[in-house]
Structures
1.
Amino acid sequence: MSTQLRRISEGNYGVARLTPAPEHPGTFLGMPKFTKAVKDELKLPVQRKNMRNAMTTIRTKRATRVAESPDWEDLRQAAFEIKNRVERHLDHYLLQAEKSLTERGVQVHWARDGAEANQIVAEIAKSKGVDEVVKIKSITTQETDLNEYLEEQGIAAWETDLAELIVQLGHDRPSHIVVPAIHRNRAEVREIFLREMKNYGRPCPEDVSSNPPDLADAARLHLREKFLRAKVAVSGANFILADTGSLVIVESEGNGRMCLTLPDTLISIVGIEKLLPTYDDLEVFLKLLPRSATGERMNPYNSVWSGVTPGDGPQEQHVILMDNGRTNVLADPVGREVLRCIRCASCINVCPVYERAGGHAYGSVYPGPIGITLTPQLRGMQDPVDRAMPYACSLCGACNEVCPVKIPFTDIIIHVRNKVVSAEKADRFPKDPEVLGEMALMKTAAWVLGDYKHFESIMYGSRGVGRVLHHKAIGPLPVPVAERWLKYRDVQAPPTQTFRDWWKQNRTESER
């Protein structure tokens, strides 16, 4: 994640640009599409080992916490109904939230897209005369590339979440929406801290070990000076409560609490779908979210604040309600169900494709099932990256089973794939031979499957192929589609005996 940071030199602060490593561009924009990017990610054995170990641990913890909750399915159903009510009456709850926030001294801004939200943040920061802000971990600000925009405006954005700090100092990109540095192991984190911390603040102790408590202590000391001098903080929010105008952030480290109490000004960028109707509704989600996200019974820090309180916390608060494509998603009767997402990442943690490919392959800050259903709809499916994402799925359905708000991911993925195909045909037909070849292939399949005699003929033909190959695997063929498919798969030759032949030989007339 490229961002402008400060380099300490002879006791004075000077501007230094934290550039990304060559293999990792600063943002997800401009990345290759999944089908190309995943080939490089699969060649990283250390990353794949890190991902496998982390995913196994998280899945086990979640399963344990869910098993001890006898009312788990009732909670899921309640969350499902609450979020559906928000979608049906989003206009009402947004106006109610604006009114409640304003009455409590919060300045409310409306942003049509990420660019407008970034501009509002920069204008507020400049009006306070600051050239740095501290940030609470926020997937929404990553969606808008806020850090990169602030860098262009001469404002340093310091990430204070431990995982986000690792990503930022490592000239890297987040690979998970809850645990952004999940692709790194403790030895790699130690190397990053020793190499980079001294350039941007208090250095990491030279004798630091790779034990997590020691690394956390080093990060705490490094960040403390930033907390104490910060005048402006930027956050997202897990929820906005429409009836009380309260914002809610759940976290595990306490850095969020520091950002919410020490600076004079607090700016929160929140997607318009993050609303809950009432304070009472929060109870359901505070039981679902920690168990689904990190396998905890509850988050160590649950912060709820309702406007400005004289002499306590930030004395100027801004909330930016951001659309950035969400109303377009809401207009789709099938696609809108993804707006129930509470960003727990349980779908990511069980996804076999994500575990092997890693988050960087998706070309979006949202990887895994939530990414391939949400991102193409938010961005409009005009880019090849967005059009490739829905195919990063085996349709195993594991994500459907674990989602705490019952998002039917596989239904939405098929729906989005259909929209991608329609868009590509409109763009490429009748010029592209690949489209014509695909249409011919589908017509052939319809002919084969439309009549059992046709299917039987093909089976007998495959039997002949099996006899010719003598049980050898089928290798790449001089046909574009087959060549791409077989290049990365071992496909055995067809059997020399069909099932129908076997049935006739091993069953009597009455059994048939």
2.
Amino acid sequence: MPSLDTLIVFTVAAVLLNLSPGPSNLYIMARSVSQGPRAGVVAAAGLFTGSFAHVAAATLGVSAIVMASAEAFTVLKWAGAAYLIWLGIQHFREAGGLIVPVGRVPAKSMGKIYRESILVEVLNPKTALFFLALLPQFVDPAAGSVTAQSLILGLIVVFTAIPSDVLIAFAAGGVARRLSANPWFALWMDKVSGAVLIGLGALVAAGEAPESAK
């Protein structure tokens, strides 16, 4: 079972990452802009459902690696830190590139949006890589079952996404207009997202995140 300190640090990190702009947020925003907040909320529900596949995959993957060898787990942690930093750098390099196609997303039924959203999330390789990069940083094999720790942390990521996704669904119109009309707003959002990812990766690389799990 993760320690209380680990749970607090990880929850804060998960909230910041869920609030930072990314493909899922933009997908919800596009649906809301096209068909209203209800469509955005349905899209968020589909993404939420699909994300459980990544929680399961990450939990089983991390557990298998830990059982294989401690060295392999260490390599995974360092690779995860490097991946988070790389994602942050990519956000800075592509700053200002956020685009929401206002009014150009084809209208669909709520059921189709939900099913499509599940598939979008399940088939998103970036989500799978992100889970494998983030979870191992806060897992301590000495603290108990790695499977249980990974599952708990994965569920935290999934459930902390709900408030931000719903907020985006209802606020999508205003945010989309700003993204479309104000390049500085898009630049700022990308830089915030990049800073969060780089900061988390640097924290892990410095050894603070693993220590907090002890």
